[in-house]
Design a protein that fits this description.
single chain, 715 residues, alpha/beta, Leucine-rich repeat, LRR (right-handed beta-alpha superhelix), 5 domains, seven-stranded mixed beta sheet, five-stranded antiparallel beta sheet, 26 strands, 30% helix, 17% strand
Length: 715
Amino acid sequence: MNKTFSFGLYFLLALNACLLLLAAFSGDMAVPLWMKPIGRMHPLILHLPIGFFVLSILLFFYRRELTDEVYHRLQRFIWFFVAFSAVSSALFGILLNAEGGYTGASLIWHKWLGVLFSLFTLGAFLGLKRFENRVVFQKCVLFGGLALVAFTGHFGANLTHGEGFVLEPLQANKKLEITPESNLYEVAIVPIFEAKCVACHNDKKRKGQLDMSQVEALMKGGKNGPIWQAGNALKSHLIEMAKLPLEDKKHMPPKGKPQLTAEEIALISDWINAGADLKKSIAAYADSSSLKKMLLARMESKKEKNYTFSALSESDIEELNTPFCSVFPLADGSPALEAEFYVSQKYEPKTLENLSNAKKQLVSLSLDKMPVTDAELSSLSKFENLERLNLNGTKLTKEGLKHLYDLKNLEELSLALTKMDKQAVQKLVEKLPNLKHLYLWETGLTEKDMLTLQEDFPALNIDRGYKPNAEEKLQLNPPTLENKNFVFNGGLELKLSHVLPGVKIHYTLDGSEPDTLSSPIYTKPIPMDSSFVVKAVAEKEGWWASNSVSGSFLASGAKADTVWLGSQPNPKYKGSGAAGLIDLKLGDASSFSGPQWLGYQQTACIAYLHFANKPNLRQISLSYLTSPGSHIFPPEAVELYGKETNGEWKAIQKIRPMVDVKGSGNMRRRIDLSTKASDKFEEYKLVVHPLAHLPTWHPDKGKPGWVFIDEITAN
């Protein structure tokens, strides 16, 4: 037994020594590709030390049921596995952290508390041998371990689920009073973001370089730029990602996370189409605005009612849920239920039939864009307390409306994007005495038909769809850059466009911000033969001007015959080597670990270019990346040298770019170094120095920065 104990102790000592070494230098660590899956097992195995620890606590309270010898042996055996699983979990966490994506104080606390817990369990394993008869020591071990588990888990939850995750349910119970003067964005859009998005997109965990926890950070967008285009929901990244198939890797929220409901997507889409105003009150929107109508209807539907029917048990509700149908209470403590179907490709009629087990409790049902037929709707009559029904975009026809006649408690019905006629809708309304809201846009009914129905049923609120208000200004979405290749050789025609007719596009080609008064107007493709940065905005009478769109283009008029490196990049970020610097391909600005990027830290990048024909160059340009959140900054200095065959190196130019300010985002940039017209060198040397110390505003100030380059062009 003593030999086994000694072997276990030395084994744990070795693992903890390795842990301390990796934790101390984790910021400079490059993890091989084959080890990344090991790191991603951290969320799985972190529960093992907790489980063994709880077992130790239970054994302590039942120690009088065992002999002293058996109890002490079991405790040492259990604490070996507590210590082993604790150090393994911490090691896996260090590997996971090396992939990036997590920053801030919570990460630092979680990492070092995990290390401390591992060392604590090692000490406990050793101490239980020496102080096995001292109950006070065992109590200190249990209470100390409990405190470390609680604090380590708290900061871990902050990283994975967002700040204040533990107390969030208590805070959520604070009801926000909504009045017509309330800010629409704050009361309608922010709660959706907080419930479905902020857990993965916050200042501690910026998935896709996107922080949605604060307005200022949200407006900067993520790795794909702004997440919405004001006035154009269909072209907004947020809506595009939400509407992708659930199995698509780019679908947001990702599979397994709470999904945006069709109602929430419609609400956000209407808000974007109405201009995505962050300050406008509910009352400021026109009464005819579909956004205002939808929000008022949503507020009305969320008012608590006193239902007399009994509630289903939690287990019964759980049985009704499927991967593509969510069933949940209308409000905390309410017996009433809502059901939401999504992913039309996965819709199954039997799932709708299974909801009959909640025929009394179901008050809200959304079948938005599901391939539901008239025949399948016959089962709806059994839901006697149904108040809201969304059939938008289904295969329902006017003949299928007869299946809705028995829904006497129905208050809100959405038939948008279905095939109807006036007579069928009129008969349906006559059969539904409690109907208050009816959505009929794009159903085949004419504007005159819907106005006539409104006159015939004045108490019914009929939504005819969004109608532009001459007094309401919307913001244009930015112009589109038609060019797909941002590195060109021999010339390029710059092409800009806009989806709306009659839009004027103002542009600049020097990187300055365009304006609608003095900047030239785009009329036809613009021929370019040198590197440039284009920025463009759109304007149209009656609309607010768009935000600007920009693109950086690199011209390569003279290609080097050969290129080689005088210093090697970090092994983790070696891209495709020296050849990748002149392959006319730019790296993905959202992924610095891609095949085009070469990364350097604490070592200057030295690149040599050889031109056999000694061209008369005007400039040499360097493309580089900035991503302050990942410690990637502009070079501290860039030096250019030239030399003749067998000659000495001659300094041509040295540039010191500006260091990024706090809050700057992820982007690709360019440095142009000028050469003299009289100089015709055979070889050029480019020396790119990474930032020696991160700026004082950075959370990791003082640490060395990274520089990433992907292309060198000559003209």
